[in-house]
Predict the structure.
Amino acid sequence: MDAPRDETRRRSDGEQTHAAILEAAMRLASIEGLSSLTIGRLAREIGVSRSGVFAHFRSKQRLQQETIAAAREVFEREVVTPGLDAPEGLAQLEGFCEAYLSYVEREVFPGGCFFAQLLAEFDAPDGEIHDEVVTFQQGGAALLEGLIATAQQHGELDPNVEPGQLAFELYAALELANYFSTLHRDPGIVDRGRKAVRAAIANAGVRDAAGSS
Amino acid sequence: MDAPRDETRRRSDGEQTHAAILEAAMRLASIEGLSSLTIGRLAREIGVSRSGVFAHFRSKQRLQQETIAAAREVFEREVVTPGLDAPEGLAQLEGFCEAYLSYVEREVFPGGCFFAQLLAEFDAPDGEIHDEVVTFQQGGAALLEGLIATAQQHGELDPNVEPGQLAFELYAALELANYFSTLHRDPGIVDRGRKAVRAAIANAGVRDAAGSS
DNA sequence: CCTACCGATCGGTAGG
DNA sequence: CCTACCGATCGGTAGG
């Protein structure tokens, strides 16, 4: 009992502060954008001096990059992992979409999906963050396309449907559900996204063996 | 010929500068966001002093509001007016969606749709601009719903389809076409939006007299 | 993790 | 439309 209890706080104080800074940075960035993050603002939020924050990162650029990396872990934990839990095929495709919508609905980030914010913020400006957003977006699209192709191989979706096109339609429903539920402070709007996902998937169902005529 | 030629430049120099500032403000805001607009940045862009810019507006808030108003006029001229040109009914609904997609494709704003940028930037933060974005978004949704309802009355769309739901699906396709084409610097992606619009509308066609069973 | 500092820039004002 | 200025804040550095 009085053995080294370091296990209850395995992290050093420095590591705890580091994590607390990133936690606040993700929250703030989801609301006001990664560009609006300032070291002074974070310092006030955490209750340390500006240099105290700065010491943990050596530039604002690194702070931004570490914030993105931390958000990626949250996304992995809250969306990707639970979203792929269902058995391969159509169920997994539906499960992934539902995992994203649930993540929006539960308001994991107070300003809505961190990466939807990042997409709109860095779609136009050139730079390293833009490139990271491109990579993240392509990863998400590739994941959806893979799930669609697998469902087609299982005979659960029309094989004539182009995976890239259906992925676009699902992606669109997920993203807009995020923006609208945040804008209207109404997680109930996520249901519109659910119906849109259902409609797009149903429209690509095997029932109508669509011909390209 | 040598009569007062004021008509060739009806605007006073002051009015011209004012317009030039708003023009630059719209361009910059579409790329980096309205929050990233600074008076000094605009002054450099236009080639006047910071106070020279400031004199035209009396606060940054007014600059932002006038920039939004100017962008609204562009949107009206480039999307709404041409978009409602087609005859009432399904053609008008399709025409409006096409007008938006064309406006994205033509890169009317260098950073993509000004209001899509504004939606993502001010969906979470409270304030006057947030409220303006809510109003603009509701206007766009109401417009789409009206066009859908009219097409239903003309017997061109399934009357059992909920206008709000179909409007959401179209809105989603339009918005994502904007974000993706900007992100990937590829206006060709707009075609994915076109196909998504066509699919959503076809899915709501009269052919399948969907039962709520 | 702190205080103390750097030059640059912010929104805004005064006075012309 | 200008110069000249205000206090506040920015990212970053020095030195402890």
